[in-house]
Each structure stands twice: as C-alpha cells, then as structure tokens.
Amino acid sequence: MSKNNQILLDEIVKQEYENFAQEVTINRFFEFFACSQILKSSELSYDEIEDGISGESHDGGADAIYLFVNGDLIKGDENIKDKYKKNAEIEFFIIQSKLENSFNEDALLKLARLCSNLFVLDFDPNQYHGRYNEKVISAFELFRETYLALITKTPKLKINFSYASKGVDIHPNVIKQKDDLISDVQKNLPVAEVNFNFIGAEALIQLFQHRPNDVFSLKLSENPLSTTGQVFIALVSLSNYFDFITDENGMLIKHIFESNVRDYQGKTTINGEIQSTLENPDAEDFWWLNNGVTILASYAAAPGGKELVIHDPEIVNGLQTSSEIYRYFTTHFEMLKKDTRDVLVRVIVPESEEARDRIIRATNSQTPIPKASLRATDEVHRQIEEFMKPRNLFYDRRKNFYKNEGKKPKDIISVPFMSQCLISVLMQKPDYARARPSTLLDDDDSYEKLFHKNNDLITYYLVSSLGRRIELVLKSNGDYSIAEINDIKFYVLYSVAVRLTQNVYPSNAAIAKLKEDMLLDEVIEHSIVSVFDLYKRLGGNEKVAKGIQFSSALKDQLREEVAK
Q1: What is each CA distance from 421 to 113, 208, 230, 376, 463, in whole angstroms?
Q2: Which fold has domain 2-209?
Q3: Contacts of 206 (CB under 8 A, 6+ apart)
Q4: 156-164 and 89-97 as β-strands: parallel, antiparallel, unpaired?
Q5: C-alpha of 250 from chain center
Q6: How far is 145 from 128, CA to CA, in rounded Å?
Q7: Domain map of the chain by residue range?
Q8: Backbone angles phi and psi of 345, in degrees to 5
Q9: How far apart are the first and last CA of the chain?
Q10: Per mean pLDDT, which range of 31-45, 213-227, 258-272 is the poorest?
Q11: Which terminal residue of the chain has fewer beta carbons within 10 Å of its beta carbon, N or C?
C-alpha cells in the first residue's frame, strides 16, 4: 500500500506539472506543489505561494518561508504595529520539500544550522550574505521585525516546520534530528510553540484530495423571515454561528470570508466593544447591540424550518463580529453549551455580479475596511475581468475564484500583480511596484490614474499579459535567482513598454495602440539583459530594487536610447 501511495503521488505531481505549463524543473515544481497543499487552508493565491518560495542555492534547507499574523500573510510594506493591537498570533512557516522517496538527515541538519544562525534576534544580515540567499535572509528579517514590532502586544508565537517528500517511513535518526531542531529553536525563542510535520506520500495525497465544503447548514434559533426572492433574515445562537464558521478541528474556515473584504482590523474600538459585549453574557442580548452578519450565496433554502442550507457562502459583512465570536469561544470553550445569546444573520442570493458588488460596498460603508479591500468591487474591475476572459487571461478580482475553477497559474492575473504592472508602466515607478506590493491601491490619486473609467480596457490586458510573459521568460531562462527575478521583473516591464512606445513616459493611449505581435521576444531579451546589468552594477540586491536610484538610472539609460 505504501508503494501504491508513491505511485499515485508521482502521477498526481506529473499531471499537475503538465497543467502548470511553465518551463521549470519537476523538482522546482514539487516545491510549489508541496507549499500549495501544506498551506491550502490559508487560501493563498498562486502569486502568494510563488512569492514565498526561496529554494535555490544557499537556501539553508528552507525551500519556502511564509509569515502570518492572525492568519494574514505578511509582506514587508505593511504597518504591523497599527494593524494588530493586542493578542496577535504570529505563525512562521518553514517548508522543506524534496521529490525523493525518503526523509533524510541532511535536510534537517541544514535547517538546524540556518535556525541557530537566523533565529538570533540581533543577527547581522551582512554576516550571512553569500552563505544564505537573499530571499531567506529577507524572510527572517521580516520575521524579526514583525515579532519585535508586536512584542508589547503579548503575541503568541508559532514556528511551524514541514518536510514534504514521497517518503513513507521515518528513520529514528531523522526523528532525533527533528527533536534536536525543535530544542535548538526553543533555546533561541523559549516562548515559541515549535511544530514539525513530516508530510509523506499518503499525507500529500490526502491534502491534494481534500476539497473545501461548498454546502453549509446553519441552525437557526427561530424560523427565518423570508422576503421576495432568496433572502432570509434570522437569529442564530452564538454557538451555532461558531460551528458554522469553524471546521471539525475548531479552526476558522477562511474561504467563506469574502476574499477582498476579509482583513481583520485588530483591536479597534469597534472590536473592543464587540468583545466587551461577548464577555458580559448577563447583559443585553448580543444581537440588540450588534449589526450582525451578511452572507451572500449562490443558493439558499430553509427546508426544515429552523435551518438554512447555504451553497457557496461568502461572509461579506460581519468579519469583525465573526472574528470576535471565534476568539471568544476559543478562549471560553466552556461557554459553547451555556451561552444562549443570538446574532442577527442575513443571507442573500444576489441576482447578478453587479448586485453582489453593490451589496458588498453598501454593507461595508460603516466599517473601517481598508480602501484597497473594496476596490475590486468597482465597476472597472468587473469590466477588465470580462474583457480579458475571452483572451484567455483571467483577472482574479475575487481572490482565488479562477484558481478554484482550475485555471492555470500563468493565466491568472491577480489584482496586486495588475496594479504592480500598471504602476510600473503608466506611472513609471517600477521601484514603487517592487517596494509596496501590499499597499499600492491605498492611495486615491494613484488608484484614480491607474483605474480611471476612461482608460482603454486593452491597456490592462496588454500590460498584464506582457508582465506575465516577462516573468515566465525570466523563470525559463535559468540564469536568474528567485530573488533577482522579483527584483527586476517590473523594471524589465517598464523598459519593454518604453522601447515599444519609444517614450520614457508611456501613456494609456500609447499602450492601447500596441499590437500583440509587437511584443517581440528580442525586445524582452534585450530589456532583461540591460536591466540586469544595471541592477548588478548598482549592487544587485533587494535594497537596490526598492530604491529610487535604480529607477532614475534606468530612465536616464532609456532616455538616451529613445533619443537616438
């Protein structure tokens, strides 16, 4: 049976590799595949999974690294102190993946050495350049900065190791190395909970075959009020609502929270009031003091009176309420059977995508949701999605919608990637695109310029498809590290746009006039070589890529070329 699992896993990886349709090695793809399965419950996009992969030379045994706070993937441009006020949970994932039939000691020995060096909170990154690659060092720096920024908020710290392979049995020596690694990490971080999981063939198959439930049952306190169409309003006990939003292990089910409005706002005044209400069960009923929750669905029915059957639920308003209910019962588990209070729930089946977006915006108008979270409900994003779809590019304005439909990673354009491409070309700021991937849409002026209603839809398609094409060329070339690709790809995109338009300041109108057959491989290759050469001359690291000097020097270089 063990051998059968390895055979089955080989076939799964082979077919998924063919569907991946990118020119990378099967071993490199297995890193992506393993991370996709191990972090499946985190609902990461393909781009987010790719961004965490660090496996190449000098990776210290860490093929991929991801940092989460309260379940949110953390990137380097966020204001951690302001976003998370108290009782934050920091999770640092380090993943090792090998397309081999066993688990071996060498991988753990490398990880042990890496962690003994970089889990020292005052480590000097300059001391380890050349020993560890830039992505690994940057990931540990981000962990340190995040941990220190939240240290006064009494964070809960988890260090999670996963070692994925086709292995079946684990040799006692490997288990001993695992135990030593956990002990070493706890010496540097004594307050941390350290976990290590061996993910073999059987476990990978189980993870791959697991599919999130799309039909939910919600038990009600009373028969629901039903209005015209599929709209239900009902009271739900807090404990039944907790069961609705958690899985069999008591973990929050992330995929039912509308992906573009799921940012938990930390310890705000509103959340403090919600938690205070929950902590006082003898006061007024909860639903008297709370606006409740709005759920959108593809179908809803009340077949048994005090129960709703909900297909594809999306909680589009009430994330703060849901999060606080979840936190309340996970810290007061004994109250699950005692608490008799209710929360007000509205379940709506929208008649159209336009109606869906209007409901999301309206129900969040009173809540301090970040601007970027609601942007994707603007009409222009729906227009971009519809324009690109027949051209075999899929604009993922609803995060992971097309991933869940089985579209290939290379054909999916995320909102952040689109924004980075646009700001690199139309605003001529590749440095800004590299340095601020998480906050690009927060600025009103930039947003209005990039996504103005009068912009040609063909511009969005051409810029994003060109950006993706450049990314694929860089990966297939084999001459550039993961860190180097991340550092230069938007500079290359800007260079190609300048050369095609013969203007250092490419405009929407100029881009819209380009034809797809003008996007010649020679122009891309020439731009890659010239950009990379300049990048290396300036220092060739993340700091260079995020700084203004690289962008200014590139513009000067292109200005001279265009003037000839």
Answers
A1: 38, 32, 40, 16, 6
A2: Restriction Endonuclease (3.40.91)
A3: none
A4: parallel
A5: 22
A6: 17
A7: 2-209, 215-369, 375-563
A8: -125, 135
A9: 69
A10: 258-272
A11: C
- Per-residue confidence at 262, pLDDT binned at 50, 70, 90? very low
Rounded percentage of the chain residues whose pLDDT exceeds 70: 91
| Conformational region of residue 483, where left means phi above 0, alpha means psi within -120 to 50, and beta covers everything else | alpha
The kind and range of the H/E element at 156 are strand 156-164
What was the pLDDT predicted at 370? 45
Exposure b/e, 82-97, CB count within 10 A at least 16 = b = ebbeebbebbbbbbbb
Q: Which amino acid is at 108?
A: L
Q: In this structure, are residues 41 and 236 in contact, taking their beta carbons and an 8 Å threshold? A: no
Alpha-carbon distance of 308 to 62, in angstroms, equals 45
Q: How far apart are CA 486 and CA 493, in angstroms?
A: 12
For residue 293 the two structure tokens come to 């929750």
Give the C-alpha distances (Å, rounded to integers) separating 43 from 32, 257, 314. 14, 11, 14
- pTM of the prediction? 0.82
Question: Rounded to the nearest 5°, which phi and psi values hold at 344?
Answer: -85, 130
The tokens of 328 are what?
């309340």
Give the separation between CA 90 and CA 156, rounded to whole angstroms. 6
Contact 80, 153 (CB under 8 A): no
Beta pairing partners, 342: 237
Output the pLDDT for position 369. Answer: 44
DSSP state string for 160-196: EEEEE-S--S--HHHHHHHHHHHHHHHHH-TT-EEEE
Tell me if 31 sits within 8 A of 64, measured CB to CB: yes
- Give dist(CA 441, CA 376) in Å, integer: 10
Structure tokens belonging to residue 122 = 């005052």
Tokens of 259: 């992906």
Q: What is the mean pLDDT of the chain?
A: 87
Q: HSE (CB half, 13 Å, CA atoms) of 322?
A: 26
| Tokens read off for 318 | 């009430």
**Cβ-based neighbours of 224, under 8 Å, separated by 6 or more:** 232, 233, 234, 302, 308, 347
Q: How far apart are CA 512 and CA 457, in angstroms?
A: 8
Alpha carbon distance 116, 474 (integer Å): 33
Sheet bearing 72-73, strands edge to edge: 72-73, 64-69, 89-97, 156-164, 193-199
Contact 112, 196 (CB under 8 A): no
- Cα–Cα distances in angstroms (integers) from residue 140 to residues 376, 401, 439, in the given order: 32, 31, 21
